[in-house]
Amino acid sequence: MAGYLRIATEEAFAPPELIARYRKLLEDGYDDPGFRSLWGFYSGASPRATALAERIQDLGERRLRDMDDTGIAMQILSLTAPGVQVFDAPEATALARSFNDQLSDAIRKHPDRFSGLAAIAPQDPAGAAKELERGVRQLNLKGAIVNSHTRGEYLDDSKFWAIFEAAEYLNVPVYIHPTTPPKSMIGPFIERGLDGAIFGFAVETGLHLLRIIVSGVFDRFPKLRIVAGHLGEGLPYWLFRIDFMHAAMVKANRYPAVQKLQKKPSEYIKENMYVTTSGMAWEPPILYAQSVLGVDRVLYAMDYPYQFVPEEVKVTDHLPISDADKKKLYQSNAEQVFSI
Ligand code: CA
User: Fold this and answer.
1) How far is the CA of 251 from the centre of ligand 1 (A)?
2) What is the domain count for the chain?
């Protein structure tokens, strides 16, 4: 026995209805090059897309078999990117509700193997806050999943803060998961095929997280917890420079939108954020993230089924860290952050 359970914290699912709606958006000429790039590919017929489509729609035996084969005790499930954030508000809100009900049914059938986060539609911030509350209180979901920008808008805009207020009040985290960069920034990425998980996801989501930090969201909601995948989307590497330049910009009064915060930007990253290892099964950055954020702040994730590589579990099993820290990484941090 390993002495720990492997809880994978950023594992995607997509109901068949969501894939059908994505196909319809593509057919209708939905004008978002990132969405067209991502779902144009994953709704196609390539071997990678076909394998993904089979796995991502399954919330039963197929998924459990893959988990057994890789030693994953539990998946924390979330609606795949871009979730419902590409639809008009009423449709997005109704779909989020329906998908949360479906997720909750799957969890009820396998409560020791599945847990999950509530999909929400930030297009209607008050409705999103309400759905998060329903998800947590009635469906036993453990937080919210937001697939980064919503039609080019970011959660640091105070019109969205009802979502943060609800998350803080309910004491559940908001997982900010990547999506492709919005139309306004995707051009230079897509020209070289860099818009997706290879790099564009991290740039766009890192930007989103940093916007939230410098906007003062955590001063307004000091107990809010945000989870980021992919070892923090690059931010842990930048802490020194972000702090240095933020202080210099505040002192110079260079931008009206850059105001003094109660803490250094890095302190919010260390005290209000958690990062997961999704897609980053590589010893140096995992150890680095643990060293700068603390071992209580780094959680295991596989990124199933996008990155379903069984050998990656071995990389994590063999990290040169103590058994106690490995248990935190794989199990107890997830139990604490998601109240499992
Ligand atoms: Ca993912």
Assistant:
1) 38
2) 1
pTM: 0.98
Is residue 303 part of the annotated active site? The answer reads yes
How far apart are alpha carbons 128 and 92 in whole angstroms?
10
| Residue 24 within a domain | yes
Print pLDDT tens along the chain (340 aa). Answer: 679 999 999 999 999 999 999 999 999 999 999 999 999 999 999 999 999 999 999 999 999 999 999 999 999 999 999 999 999 999 999 999 999 999 999 999 999 999 999 999 999 999 999 999 999 999 999 999 999 999 999 999 999 999 999 999 999 999 999 999 999 999 999 999 999 999 999 999 999 999 999 999 999 999 999 999 999 999 999 999 999 999 999 999 999 999 999 999 999 999 999 999 999 999 999 999 999 999 999 999 999 999 999 999 999 999 999 999 999 999 999 999 999 9
Catalytic hit among 112, 303, 323, 325: 303
Neighbours of 291 (CB within 10 A): 11
- The CATH number linked to 111 is 3.20.20.140
> Taking ligand 1, which is a single-atom ion, which protein residues have CB atoms under 5 Å away?
10, 303
Query: If you measure from the C-alpha of residue 10 to the centroid of ligand 1, how many angstroms do you get, rounded to a whole number?
Result: 6
**Domain-embedded: residue 2:** no
Listed residue (229, 294, 212, 170) closest to 10, CA to CA = 229
Question: How would you label 22-59 residue by residue, b for 16+ Cβ within 10 Å and e otherwise?
Answer: beebeeeeeebbbbbbbbeebbeeeeeeeebbebbbbb
Q: State the distance from the centre of ligand 1 to the C-alpha of 89, rounded, in angstroms.
A: 23
- Dist. CA 257 → ligand 1 center (Å): 31
Beta-carbon contacts of 278 under 8 Å, excluding residues fewer than 6 positions away, are: 9, 10, 229, 230, 301, 302, 303, 307
Residue range(s) defining the domain that contains residue 325: 7-338
Q: How far is the CA of 279 from the centre of ligand 1 (A)?
A: 8
In angstroms, what is the span from residue 213 Cα to ligand 1's centroid? 22
Tokens of 188: 């230079």
The tally of CA atoms less than 13 A away on the side-chain side of residue 215 is: 16
